[in-house]
Amino acid sequence: MTCAMFITDLDGTLLNDDKGISARNLAALAALGDMGIVRVVATGRSWFSFIQALENLDLSGPRDSFPIDYVIFSTGAGIMAYPSMELVCDHALSSEEVHRIAGCFDTRKMDYMIHRPIPHTRDFLFHSHGRDNPDFTSRVDLYKPWATPLGPKGINGFGRATQLLAVVPEQEAFGVFEQISSELAGLSVVRATSPLDHKSLWIEVFPRGVSKSHGAAWLVKRLGMGPENVVAVGNDYNDLDLLQWAGKGFVVANAPADLKSRFTMVQSNNRSGVAAAINITPFVSGCHSR
Question: Matching InterPro entries, A to Z (predicted)?
Answer without folding.
Answer: HAD-like_sf, HAD_sf
